[in-house]
């Protein structure tokens, strides 16, 4: 055999977190086929596409079956009808001006946050919050920016910014110079947020240190408090230092349908080896036009319908439904003496394990005794040890049932 693999893949931890959870749950179900398991692990929605979105989707599918209206390849960056609707509905009302070619429609924020690192050099120093959405770390490991993992569960070459009880889940600024900082707020997995002042500190750090912030705002629609920014571009000067990722997945039930978008401002620059500034927008455009053929026309029409009057109302009703689940989870767990965070501006509730139990032990206990699936905090990084994440995306009935089952356990 002579074909060599990309050795960086050998530095990855076992399997992708959600695959490992699915494996344990499947095994449990196989051994206990009669048990009704309630899944509050992966953040997958349960509400179907709303009527307005579905109509737009179906109409667009019909157009594809008619010679007059059939669409072949679309623009790799997405159709301008959707980019226009995004700018008009999501950014203009917050005083943020964007050009159409700063919006890149895609099939998911997981893909975009995973792929974006390709356009940056391998020598960049990367900072991630800890715990963290595993995609940011794993894709940098695959690319060769991480070095090996240490005994403490941290990769040698990455900088970790702990988000823990002691700092109210607000990361400190890096105490060394880093080039790229991944931030996700409202945060996955802790469900906590940064207010404007806290986020501004990161923007100022990035401006002072010539760094770039990769801001994952996939959960911004779940924000209920006023002082929490929905977009990093609400902070002055952010366009020169930040890329923002948004998604229809959790907002409008598109986890199976697939549609998201990434904002890459034209002000954003990084340097080549000679120190000449290069446009990140142009590089991302080059990458997407080479490796991506765009999101299908019907899906983009469905996404556009989320911005109609009816579409907006229906989507907000679904978000309210999930946030009511969040409240039920927070209150029920508080009532039985557990410490919980998040869930106020986010569909994620970050539960401190009782009696300092380890995350995977608590996961197994909930699976085996309550038949409820969570996500062990340790799977999101070393600072997630001692926590477990629950999602509010299940049905109201299942959420209530899960809380009843957990309340009946003795810790
Ligand atoms: C999660 O559970 O963290 C999310 O569903 C993962 C994702 O959006 O890819």
From TrEMBL:
Cofactor(s) needed: pyridoxal 5'-phosphate
InterPro entries linked: Aminotransferase_I/II_large, DapL/ALD1, PyrdxlP-dep_Trfase, PyrdxlP-dep_Trfase_major, PyrdxlP-dep_Trfase_small
Aminotransferase class I/classII large domain location: 36-406
Entry keyword annotation includes Transferase: yes
UniProt KW Metal-binding keyword: no
Keywords linked to the UniProt accession: Aminotransferase, Pyridoxal phosphate, Transferase
Single GO term (MF): L,L-diaminopimelate aminotransferase activity
EC number(s) from the headed UniProt entry: 2.6.1.83
UniProt enzyme class: transferase
NCBIfam families: DAPAT_plant (TIGR03542)
Designated name of the protein: LL-diaminopimelate aminotransferase
Source organism: bioreactor metagenome
Lineage, highest ranks first: unclassified sequences, metagenomes, ecological metagenomes
Protein's gene: dapL_10
